[in-house]
Automatic annotation (TrEMBL):
UniProt domain Integrin beta subunit VWA: residue ranges: 1-410
Residues of the Integrin beta subunit cytoplasmic domain: 699-727
Transmembrane segments: 676-698
Key word Signal present: yes
Species of origin: Polyodon spathula (North American paddlefish)
Name the UniProt record assigns to this protein: Integrin beta
Membrane topology note: Single-pass type I membrane protein
Phylogenetic classification of the source organism: Eukaryota, Metazoa, Chordata, Craniata, Vertebrata
Keyword set, alphabetical order: Calcium, Cell adhesion, Cell junction, Cell membrane, Cell projection, Disulfide bond, EGF-like domain, Glycoprotein, Integrin, Magnesium, Membrane, Metal-binding, Myogenesis, Phosphoprotein, Repeat, Signal, Transmembrane, Transmembrane helix
Listed PROSITE patterns: I_EGF_1, I_EGF_2
Family assignment from sequence similarity: Belongs to the integrin beta chain family.
Length: 727
């Protein structure tokens, strides 16, 4: 009896608040999280801890189980701590084309020197060496027999060209590194870009040949040229894409002539899968190119290599410190319909969200950072099978394994009663309060057979008032009963025997159904107690109609739907308090105050009859008048009488007693006549001073004129002397 007439069985699923109003027995399964493996992060001291690399823990927890219900996120905390004295494997991959001849000399002692410098960072350090030149086909190298033996010009001592050679497997013997590197010879090729991507791919995927351990893996890529990538192999007739597999025999890459160069995306995948962090040690000229490449390869760095590689040790240490100071989380491919969200809590209280929530920067050895990770399923996978997701920090071998389980059914589905008597004598399974019909049966109670149904007869039961529309066009006629359609918006519902009712076609106000103040029931608004009207837009609350004097609409109107309708045409405004044509309070009571206080004015003869409606209090000073806050509805007035004298009073109304109180200053402020003597004296003095000023100006002009005339005379006199002398 839960379903209303016309409601489909799916209406049993609803938001919890709606179900609580109609149902006592509710199933609401929730997701869950469980930590399966939770080893604490390792506190390790430099050089004193004998633990193997696989026994060091930098990420916690290690295994989890999440039970996901659609739409409900499960959040857990992941801790990361950089372990001190963590082992490092470093593989030095060097370009041995002819332009790197002087660089090779400086790298010959790299093994022991780098071992010594790295002692401050880790006590467990291994180093390896490999070299590359180019694919051994035209047009990358010259294939003439002589050039295949010695590709260099002149008397240069060169070895035959090769694609990639693994010279030294990772070892902790620095002297062995120096010895083997010292035996290497440069080679040569024709074009400027080199085949370094082939070499990087082999270093990444040939773990057994290189000797990688499950520790920090660094690949130093040293070159003074650009690189070939996928598609460039067509120049040499190589069209097969790189297969991303190991093809080393006796340390040499044997399939360079068969497979194309790898693409950048392919390299990113393999470097990430094998937890390798790349350091590009390149010359100044190629810095812009490799910085762009760094932006595409996570957990990589670029350093500027001097022209002869003399600064390579400092470059490696600086790049390692830069890479290890940042942790970036990545996850494996998520199942369809599952999303993941990261929030990082880094040093100094810095919180990052979105894509930046995956990483923390400026991490020192021993620092702990936290990540809040939320995983949400938006739908159930096919058959509800379990899935596994892995989260790991880029460049590290450790990871968190998360097993995902999905809540796709209510528990009552497992308690269904097959062939239940409630379903038309056993024609269906009674589960979760409804019938799931057996094959060949339809209807809410499985009362109809699909073979015996006469659709015309049954459709007649679904037409309202013998009309033509089946279920008012808002539903389907199933077994002689209307089952109403579901709307895209789950809050919009059709109902009724003929699906003639709905809860969304009522009158609206402010673009809301029933003004947001009622409920739409079968296309008619049922308003809440404080509202009325067809759209529940008429408020019965009169607080918005109260005037300042406490009266509804100032006593000059009616409050309708929370708004004043003024009955006196002279008054207007939201509370009927504005009267543009009315005299002011001061002007209205001026004559009465004047006659009662000073026995003057137009009403002095009728004062007793016309002006006894207020209580009068006289004061002798303006400061003794009531001030705002001392009396209710107080107005200060300043008025002038027929003699141009000012008088001051206040007009106040006591709302509780409905009394009018007027306080008036009983002393008039009358203007005084002007003082003649100072005015006359001032005028006379002004005339005298102006005359003296004019005389002084005239005298000054005459002096200036006389001096000019005298100067002119003196000049003419001098000219006369010259004429006499020269005659």
């Amino acid at each position: 009896d839960f379903l209303k007439q016309g409601e489909p069985t799916s209406a049993r699923c609803d938001v919890l608040e709606s179900l609580k109003k109609r149902c006592k027995e509710i199933e609401n399964p929730r997701g869950d999280k469980k930590v399966v493996l939770n080893k604490a992060v390792t506190n390790r001291n430099h050089g004193t801890d004998e633990r193997k690399p696989e026994d060091i823990t930098q990420i916690q927890p290690q295994k989890m189980e999440l039970t996901l219900r659609s739409g409900e996120p499960q959040t857990f905390e992941l801790k990361f701590k950089r372990a001190e004295d963590y082992p490092i494997d470093l593989y030095y991959l060097m370009d041995l084309s002819f332009s790197m001849k002087d660089d090779l000399e400086n790298v010959k002692n790299l093994g022991t020197n780098l071992m010594r410098e790295m002692q401050d960072i880790t006590s467990d350090f291994r180093i390896g060496f490999g070299s590359f030149v180019e694919k051994t086909v035209m047009p990358y190298i010259s294939t003439t027999p002589a050039k295949l033996l010695t590709p260099c010009t002149g008397d240069q001592n060169c070895t035959s060209p090769f694609s990639y050679k693994n010279v030294l497997k990772l070892t902790n013997n620095g002297n062995q590194f120096n010895t083997l590197v010292g035996q290497q010879q440069i080679s040569g090729n024709l074009d400027s870009p080199e085949g370094g991507f082939d070499a990087i791919m082999q270093v990444a995927v040939c773990g057994e040949h290189i000797g990688w351990r499950n520790v920090t893996r660094l690949l130093v890529f040293s070159t003074d040229a650009g690189f070939h990538f996928a598609g460039d192999g067509k120049l040499g007739g190589i069209v097969l894409p790189n297969d991303g597999k190991c093809h080393l025999e006796n340390g040499m890459y044997t399939m360079s002539h068969y497979y194309d160069y790898p693409s950048i995306a392919h390299l990113v995948q393999k470097l990430s899968d094998n937890n390798i962090q790349t350091i590009f040690a390149v010359t100044e000229e190629f810095q812009p190119v490799y910085k762009e490449l760094k932006n595409l390869i996570p957990k990589s760095a670029v350093g500027t290599l001097s022209s002869n590689s003399s600064n390579v040790i400092k470059l490696i240490i600086d790049a390692y410190n830069s890479l290890s100071s940042e942790v970036i989380l990545e996850n494996s491919k998520l199942p369809e319909g599952v999303t993941i969200n990261y929030v990082s809590h880094c040093k100094n209280g810095l919180v990052n969200t979105g894509e930046n929530g995956r990483k923390c920067s400026n991490i020192s050895i021993g620092d702990e950072v936290m990540f809040n990770i939320s995983i949400t399923a938006h739908k159930c996978p096919k058959k509800g099978q379990e899935e596994t997701v892995k989260i790991k920090p880029l460049g590290f071998t450790e990871e968190v394994e998360i097993k995902l389980k999905f809540v796709c059914e209510c528990e009552c589905h497992d308690k269904g009663i097959p062939n239940s008597p409630k379903c038309n004598d056993g024609n269906g399974t009674f589960e979760c309060g409804a019938c799931r019909c057996n094959e060949g049966r339809i209807g809410r109670l499985c009362e109809c057979s699909t073979e015996e149904v006469n659709s015309d007869d049954l459709d007649a039961n679904c037409r309202r008032d013998n009309g033509t529309d089946i279920c008012s066009t808002n539903g389907d006629c199933i077994c002689g009963e209307c089952v109403c359609k579901k709307r895209d918006n789950p809050s919009e519902i059709y109902s009724g025997k003929y699906c003639e009712c709905d809860n969304f076609n009522c009158d609206r106000s402010n673009n809301m159904i029933c003004g947001g103040n009622g409920e739409c029931v079968c296309r008619v608004c049922k308003c809440s107690p404080s509202y009325t009207g067809s759209a529940c837009d008429c408020s019965l609350n009169t607080s918005t109609c109260l005037a300042k004097n406490g009266q509804i609409c100032n006593g000059r109107g009616n409050c309708e739907c929370g708004t004043c309708k003024c009955t006196d045409p002279k008054f207007q405004g939201p509370t009927c308090e504005i009267c543009p044509t009315c005299p002011g309070v001061c002007a209205e009571h001026k004559e009465c105050v004047q006659c009662r206080t000073f026995n003057t004015g137009e009403k002095k003869d009728t004062c007793e009859a016309d002006c006894s409606y207020f209580n009068l209090t006289k004061v002798n000073d303006r400061d003794k008048l009531p001030q705002p806050g001392q009396a209710t509805a107080l107005t200060h007035c300043k008025e002038r009488d027929a003699s141009d004298c000012w008088f001051y009073f206040t007009y106040g109304v006591n709302n509780t007693e409905n009394d009018i109180h007027v306080h008036v200053v009983d002393v008039l402020e009358c203007p005084t006549g002007p003082d003649i003597i100072p005015i006359v004296a001032g005028v006379v003095a002004g005339i005298v001073l102006i005359g003296l000023a004019l005389l002084l100006i005239w005298k000054l002009l005459m002096i200036i004129h006389d001096r000019r005339e005298f100067a002119k005379f003196e000049k003419e006199k001098m000219n006369a002397k010259w004429d006499t002398v020269s005659n």
